[in-house]
Amino acid sequence: MKQDSCRRCGHELEVNTKCKICNEANQFFCHECGYLTEEQIHFKCMMINMDNSLLSN
Ligand SMILES: [Zn+2]
Ligand SMILES: [Zn+2]
User: Fold this and answer.
1) Which ligand is nearest to the CA of 10?
2) Residue 7, domain member (yes or no)
3) What is the CA(44)–ligand 1 centre distance, in A?
4) Structural domains in the chain (count)
5) What are 4-49's pLDDT values in tens digits?
6) Disulfide check for 21: which of 9, 15, 43, 45 has CB 3.0–4.6 Å away?
7) Structural domain for 23, as ranges
8) Is residue 3 part of a domain?
9) Angle at 16 between CA 23 and CA 48, to 5 degrees
């Protein structure tokens, strides 16, 4: 689910962080009022991340 506008002021949200695994935006912020959304956690990516850290490759 995408969040396109700020819940506080309705201004367009900008990407704050991207998922390191799938490179999709997972956190947004509002330039206008400084509102920051909660970081969305992709469970699938979290599992991949855990696998990667287990393999000390
Ligand atoms: Zn992801
Ligand atoms: Zn805002």
Assistant:
1) 2
2) no
3) 7
4) 1
5) 899 999 999 999 999 999 999 999 999 999 999 999 999 999 999 8
6) 45
7) 13-54
8) no
9) 30
Residue 56 above 70 pLDDT? no
Q: Say how many Å lie between the CA of residue 5 and the centre of ligand 1.
A: 21
Cα-to-centroid distance, 56 and ligand 2 (Å): 42
Ligand number nearest to the C-alpha of 7: 2
How many angstroms does the Cα of residue 49 sit away from the middle of ligand 2? 32
CB 53 within 8 A of CB 45: no
Domain-located, residue 1 = no
25 belongs to a structural domain: yes
User: In sequence order, which residues have a C-beta less than 8 Å from that of residue 20 and are 6 or more positions away?
Assistant: 45, 49
